[in-house]
């Protein structure tokens, strides 16, 4: 591109070569729904619904069993084989319990909130590709309910509506703990949604599309977990924050808020929140699978067997489910090993670390991608027998240098902090140095309080009281 | 299927139907025993503290968080079309994006320095 056209573009805001460009087709969904009548969509919706309900029944049992093993106890093992029916029994019991609406509650909103939470939890799964094209009742259709050019945006939007369930539940309960829990929970979810949205930008840069089937198809040679590894890490952290799970389950910290936003709920309405929480876990895990782990595609080794036999037809469901459950296992593992963080620490991590670092990462990926596509010059250099584009090498070098510099600064700060904390406390302290009385540490000696004339704001009357 | 948004409604209807049905069933099946103490706000057994109507006044921190969320979320959404069309826009997009992110960083640094990101 010449300098003149570039200046023109910068002035007008419109790239000159775009006029000649055909309408963009790459961001359209790859999945072909032309042979899918409406009743088949309904069948698929029903299948997804059943899949989600069964998975939820299973994962609650799985979580309790695994947590039990981590705490050296058996976990539920009486109801059905291996206790598999425990969740069903719990659900039945909840249904037979009394449904209480507190006297101070706003009745309409109070009844509506659990319905919003549960309903919205199901919707996102519609755009998750569960498998490739299969024959179903004589029609050739993808194993995916629907796909949109803005599919991933839809997931974020639906998650945003799901927050209404939480905040309305807390607000309408007419009670203090649910109100605080609901506020905390919504602040937490929206804070982490920013970092989550930014982490996904790197994937869009590589795939050139927001349609989930297109993103999966673009990963046929390389799963995005490798080129966008940092995005993956940020996404995994934010998905735990989004779903209010330990170590980020501050909305329902039992020690401080009893149950959080659903303290006042009982019976099936409580069960709806519970269901929504677990389905949301499945949704964020499914999105992670789709964006970073190649969706329904078989793992690289297995994909090569028998000229891609395992990458066709119904096999996709198997790989998708395995990848999904790796994330579920990770959720349970976190809950079994990590204590809850403090709320201000949690918000600090989200706002002061994840957001700026992810923004910087997006810029870095854009440059790497630009170099790959040849926007930054086409000259190459031969190194160890291979040709590398100069621009890529320069960018990787710059990023490595910046990262090195950042760790250097950070390490210096850490060293200062450790030195400050491990320094022995002074042997003699002035109890009024800070303007208010401070008790001595063990082994410390108090100096005679400085007289008022020296300008210290010491109240004279307090002196005698604190020395004894 | 011509309109790709219609199947979303199917799933929405299924979810809503399930939620309404199960809550409705429990309302019919479950017991109803009146007890005045049961309908009071739950505060771990002590007398419930007076609760202002409509939730009372909410700490300003939450309001601030919600406002910052809108600003930064819109900014991250602005990055989406850029990322999707990056293959077609070329160097122009790269330069514009860097300028945009720099502007975001200025606002971000301002909020940080003014203490908008402190929770305490």
Question: What's the SSE blueprint?
Answer:
The complex is a heterodimer of chains A (468) and B (120).
Chain A: H1 3-12, H2 38-70, H3 86-95, H4 107-123, E1 131-136, E2 139-143, H5 151-172, H6 176-207, H7 212-218, H8 229-242, H9 254-257, H10 267-292, H11 300-303, H12 315-337, H13 343-372, E3 380-383, E4 386-389, H14 390-422, E5 428-429, E6 445-446, H15 463-467
Parallel strand pairs in A: 5-6
Antiparallel strand pairs in A: 1-2, 3-4
Chain B: H1 6-29, H2 60-84, H3 86-89, H4 91-113
Biggest chain contact: A-B, 101 and 75 residues
Distance between the termini of chain B: 52 Å
Backbone CA Rg of chain A: 28 Å
- Main sheet of chain A, how many strands, which sense, barrel? 2 strands, antiparallel
Structural class of chain A: mainly alpha
Can you list the strand order of the major beta sheet of chain A?
1-2
How many helices of chain A? The count is 15
Task: Let me know the number of strands of chain A.
Answer: 6
Give the number of DSSP strands of chain B: 0
Mean pLDDT across the residues of chain A is 83
Separation of the first and last Cα atoms of chain A: 82 Å
Mean pLDDT of chain B: 85
The helix/strand series of chain B, from N terminus to C terminus, equals: HHHH
User: What is the string of helix and strand elements of chain A?
Assistant: HHHHEEHHHHHHHHHEEHEEH
User: Taking Cα atoms only, what radius of gyration of chain B do you get, to the nearest Å?
Assistant: 25 Å
Low-confidence stretches of chain A: 10-26, 460-468
């Amino acid at each position: 591109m010449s300098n003149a056209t570039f200046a023109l573009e910068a002035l007008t805001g419109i790239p000159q070569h775009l006029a000649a460009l055909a309408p963009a087709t790459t961001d359209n969904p790859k999945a072909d729904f032309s042979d899918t009548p409406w009743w088949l969509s309904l069948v698929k919706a029903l299948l997804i619904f059943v899949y989600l309900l069964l998975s939820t029944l299973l994962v609650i049992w799985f979580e309790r069993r695994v947590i039990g093993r981590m705490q050296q106890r058996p976990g539920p093992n009486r109801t059905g084989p291996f206790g598999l029916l425990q969740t069903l029994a719990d659900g039945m019991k909840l249904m037979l319990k009394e449904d209480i609406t507190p006297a101070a509650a706003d009745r309409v909103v109070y009844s509506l909130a659990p319905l919003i939470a549960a309903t919205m939890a199901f919707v996102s799964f519609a755009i998750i590709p569960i498998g490739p094209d299969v024959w179903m009742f004589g029609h050739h259709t993808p194993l995916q309910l629907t796909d949109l050019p803005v599919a991933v945006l839809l997931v974020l939007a639906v998650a945003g509506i799901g927050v209404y369930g939480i905040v309305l539940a807390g607000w309408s309960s007419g009670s203090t703990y649910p109100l605080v829990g609901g506020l905390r929970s919504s602040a937490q979810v929206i804070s982490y949604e920013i970092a989550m949205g930014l982490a996904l930008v790197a994937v869009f840069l590589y795939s050139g599309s927001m349609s989930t089937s297109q993103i999966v198809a673009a990963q046929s040679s390389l799963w995005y977990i490798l080129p966008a590894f940092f995005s993956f890490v940020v996404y995994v952290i934010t998905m735990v924050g989004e779903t209010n799970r330990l170590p980020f389950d501050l909305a329902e910290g039992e020690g401080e808020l009893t149950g959080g936003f659903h303290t006042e709920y009982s019976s099936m309405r409580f069960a709806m929140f519970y269901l929504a929480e677990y389905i949301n876990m499945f949704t964020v895990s499914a999105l992670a699978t789709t964006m970073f782990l190649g969706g329904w595609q078989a793992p690289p080794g297995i994909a090569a067997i028998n000229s891609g036999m395992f990458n066709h037809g119904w096999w996709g469901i198997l790989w998708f489910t395995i990848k999904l459950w790796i994330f579920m296992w990770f959720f349970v593992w976190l809950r079994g090993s990590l204590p809850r963080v403090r709320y201000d620490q949690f918000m600090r991590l989200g706002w002061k670390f994840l957001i700026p670092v992810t923004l910087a990462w997006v810029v870095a990926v854009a440059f790497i991608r630009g170099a790959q596509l040849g926007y930054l010059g086409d000259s190459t250099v031969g190194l160890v027998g291979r040709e590398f584009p100069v621009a890529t090498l320069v960018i990787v070098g710059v990023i490595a240098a910046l990262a090195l510099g950042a760790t250097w600064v950070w390490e210096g700060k850490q060293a200062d902090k450790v030195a400050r904390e491990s320094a022995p406390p002074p042997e003699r302290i002035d109890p009024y140095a800070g303007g208010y009385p401070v008790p001595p540490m063990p082994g410390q000696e108090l100096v005679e309080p400085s007289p008022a004339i020296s300008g210290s704001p010491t109240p004279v009357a307090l002196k005698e009281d604190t020395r004894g | 299927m011509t309109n790709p948004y219609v199947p979303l409604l199917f799933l929405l209807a299924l979810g809503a139907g399930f939620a309404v049905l199960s809550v409705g069933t429990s309302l019919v099946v479950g017991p109803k025993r009146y007890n005045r103490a049961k309908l009071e706000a739950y505060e771990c057994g002590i007398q419930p503290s007076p609760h202002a109507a409509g939730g009372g006044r909410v700490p300003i921190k939450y309001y601030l968080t919600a406002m910052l969320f809108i600003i930064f979320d819109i900014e991250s959404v602005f990055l989406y079309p850029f990322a999707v069309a990056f293959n077609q826009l070329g160097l122009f997009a790269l330069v514009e994006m860097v300028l945009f992110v720099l502007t975001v960083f200025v606002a971000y640094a301002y909020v940080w320095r003014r203490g908008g990101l402190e929770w305490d």
